[in-house]
Every structure is written in C-alpha cells, then in structure tokens.
Amino acid sequence: MAESGIVKIKLCGMMCRDDIITANELLPDYVGFIFVSYRKRYVTKEAAADMRRILDPRIHAVGVFIDEAPEAVAELCREGIIDSAQLHGSEDEDYISRLRALTDAPIIKAFRIRSSSDAASAARSTADAVLLDAGTGGGRTFDWSLIKGFPRPYFLAGGLDPENVARAISGTSPRPYAVDVSSGIETDGRKDASKMRAFVRAVRECK
After folding, report:
1. Active site includes 94?
2. C-alpha–C-alpha distance, residues 105 and 26, integer Å
3. Whether domain 8-204 has CATH 3.90.180.10
4. Choosing from 12, 19, 161, 180, which is the catalytic residue?
5. Quick check: helix, strand or coil at residue 49?
6. Active site (annotated) includes residue 12
7. Running along the chain, 207 residues long, what does each successive block of 10 average in pLDDT?
8. Could you tell me the pTM of the whole model?
9. How far apart, in whole angstroms, are the C-alpha atoms of residue 56 and residue 49?
10. Where are the domains of the chain?
11. CA geometry: angle at 109 spanning 103 and 113, to 5°?
12. With the C-alpha atoms ordered 125, 128, 133, 136, is the resulting torsion angle positive or negative?
C-alpha cells in the first residue's frame, strides 16, 4: 500500500444492501464488513456475500476480525467475500505469519494509540498496513501528535466524522494513507447516506 497525495477512504461497518448501494454511488476505496459476533455491526458470512455480489468491483472489501481463527479468515478471502483482513484483537506476529501461510490477501493490523510506544509498536508490524485507532469505541479520537513522523503509510481511525475529518488529515504529519469511519456516518446506529456523502466529500475536498 504505497503512499500517495490523495487520501483514500474506508467506510466500515456495512450492514445491508442499501449501505452498498450508497457506497457504489460514492466509490470509496474500501468498505468494511465486521465479522465479530458480539459487535453491533456484525454481519454473517452469508450477509457479507450477498453485499459483495452487488459491490462495485472497483471497491476493495475488507473483513474486520478480533482473534478469529486464521483458517476462518483465509476461507473468506479464498471465497472472494473479502479482499483483505483487518485484525483488531491480540493477534501477534506469529498469528500474522500463520495467516500469510493460508492466504495472499493483504493484512491490516489495528493498533490502539495511547502513547508513543504504541506508535512505535505499530511501525514495527510486519502487516501489509497498519490502522491507528483510539480503540475506545464511542466515536473518540486519540492524540494525533503521538504519530507525528510516523514512518509508514497508515489508516487513521477513531472518532472521525464529516465535521472533523478534514482537520484530522491536515492535523497529522505525515498525512494518513487512508481514513476509516463507521459510527461517524451513522444516525441511530444505522448508516446515514447523507453523512456518508458528506464524509466522502470532505475528504476529497482536502488539499
């Protein structure tokens, strides 16, 4: 995942066909399906496959997992339901190696950033990409100064929404490779097409 001047967009937590129809209109770079049964945006393999069938092929589908068996993650990749795996649990370097032995799909590892040492750990990851997050839920951002000078391309997540994403992009150095949003484009726990459009527009208007 090479660095470029244009910040890419990931709309995460797709839950139904209407979400995909709006995504197809907006053409973000990525959408995310959450395969974590105790999370409120959880989707089954069957539901994700149904959404994937109507997803514009120009959009990359990411599966989000927490400490899932590598075999189960690889199966979703092999079946073409997802293009890459995003790991949000305690998956370590050994886990990443085991998953790589099962699939060639790109691996994104998420890190909760609370200190400069967390950022340093993320920088050392052997995952294809890293996602830097507040890790607290509830739509909260983290202290972006902790990642100043971060040495590799990264996805920026945690508390982003249409109102603050431009500030997030301009307030981080280096700028993120991509921005990731879920709750920030929702109303009453469901994806809001108007907020999805506003978020995408705000990112694409950033200079």
Report:
1. no
2. 24
3. no
4. 12
5. helix
6. yes
7. 76 98 98 95 97 98 98 98 97 98 98 96 97 78 94 96 96 96 96 98 92
8. 0.95
9. 13
10. 8-204
11. 175
12. negative
